[in-house]
Amino acid sequence: MPSDAELLLTVEAAWVTAFGPIRSRGSVSFVGVLPIDVLRFGPDDAGTVRYATVGMARTPMADPSAVVVDAKSAPRAELVLALAERRDSVLRTMAMLASAPAVEGIVLVPDSTVDTGQALWDGSVFTAVLVDVPELADVAIGTGAPIRLLPVIPVTATELAYRRTQGAAALRAAWQEAGTDLLDPGRSPVR
């Protein structure tokens, strides 16, 4: 297993390779959790801004009822949020989402959701995220489980309720049918 510093540098290098130079960095600490950095990339040529976490992968995700966690096989991940405009007040929320596995004992995988119970950024109608299917390759970290680079999509309370009753595939189908621009930070909820 790499050291903590090596792991963080490896994750940061993966984000830089995928999205280019870091435009800004914020660091947030929560009680009982090592600091989580959130990097801002962009806007890129298409105008997309990305907020990516560094530090979530320090701790393998595991079921809180597990007596023993195998650090070599338990999944590790980092998160990235893509928006069509800057919303830098999302930095704290991204750090909070990244700390959720360590604090709440949840395992984030594609199609899972995390409800923050508050606006994702100042003035946002979104209060939760849907973990999407990764577009980037996993990051190898020696002999341990690779780090998954998981995109998250903002969802409203209505969309979260729909996802809970109908499933993530149905929510994605509703977005597609409505022609929803998931990068638009001011979009209306899908009906």
What number of structural domains do the residues give? Answer: 1
Approximately how much helix is present in the residues?
25-40%
SSE order, as H and E?
HEEEEHEEEHH
**Strand line-up in the sheet with most strands:** 1-2-3-4-7-6-5
Mean pLDDT: 92
Q: How many β strands by DSSP?
A: 7
Stretches with pLDDT under 50, minimum 5 residues: none
Structural class: alpha+beta
**Counting H and I runs of at least 4 residues, what is the number of helices?**
4
Nearest-angstrom radius of gyration? 16 Å
Sketch the major β-sheet: 7 strands, mixed
Primary descriptors:
191 residues; alpha+beta
3D structure, described in words:
With 191 residues, this protein is α+β, with helices and mostly antiparallel strands. It has one domain. The protein is 27% helix and 25% strand. Strands 1-2-3-4-7-6-5 form a seven-stranded mixed sheet, sandwiched between helices. Strand 1 and strand 2 form a beta hairpin. Helix 3 packs across helix 4. It starts with a helix and ends in a 13-residue tail after the last helix. The mean pLDDT is 92.
